[in-house]
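Sequence and structure are kept together here, with a separate record for every protein. An example record follows, reproduced without changes.
>
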Amino acid sequence: MIAYIIRRLLYAIPILIGVNLITFALFFFVNSPDDMARIHLGVKRVTPEAIAKWKADRGYDKPLVYNTDAPGLAKATDTIFYRHSLKLFVLDFGRSDEGRDIYYDITNRMWPSLAIALPTFLVGILVYVTFALLLAFFRGSYLDAGGVVVCVVLMSISTLFYVIGGQYLVSKLLHLVPISGYDDSGWLAFKFLTLPVAVGVVSAIGANTRLYRTFFLEEIGKDYVRTARAKGLSEARVLFRHVLQNAMIPILTGVVVVIPLLFIGSLIMESFFGIPGLGSYTIDAIHSQDFAIVRAMVFLGSVLYIVGLILTDLSYTLVDPRVRLE
């Protein structure tokens, strides 16, 4: 297993380099360093001297990927790509184009993101699996048919509707919780996070319940289930003891991959509810054309996604001893 993990980590290196190259190319195809300087200086008629100084202060005065004027290895190292992208592999995120320490921002903003994402994830899994098991238990009945119809209806509604509807009903009309904002102190934190967590869970009930219901129904039709029934086991025990355990592998495929992405935050939730997390941090960086932050967040997301895939493979061995990683 250790050899498998090492091999997967080595595979991740060319993937991360490719992600860096694609992000770098896409960003500089849209904006040149001169365009970035004009945006950040915020002056309509900025002087060439001010542009040159802004680029020199941030290291954007070098060639993009190959420096023909530099000697030897400096042709590749004395470039914008080498100075601003490859150092990410040692988690040196550098500074944003506005001069802020990106590592400091990430370590501070990840906690509000986790404060929303982790409860949403845990409560959501419990709710989705419970509802899916309930529909599978009453499969073929009016309850099952009605539940599927409700799931399809919920899937058809945009997440923005849940956000705006929740803010209007719960905050503006009932005045139960604040409409937006964030406070990390005790009871106030709970009040600010209740609505985003509830909206996050409700908006995904339809899709996830249908998905998990499909997994359970697929397992119910297998031979081991018929054998368990032939031995006289009750339907509830067959469903909750055997079917649930054997359906964990496809469920884990989607669940474990999501766990590392909890650190990145939700772009929609944080933007609409005013949460100072990594999701809103990324959106603000895109709006301000801050390449340093966008580059760091894309790289961090790629690393966490690869970690999630490895955790998924490892989790298979925990729920099913027959699975071995070769």
Observations:
- The chain has two domains: 2-90, 115-319.
- The chain is about 75% helix and 0% strand.
- The chain has a mean pLDDT of 82.
- The radius of gyration is 25 Å.
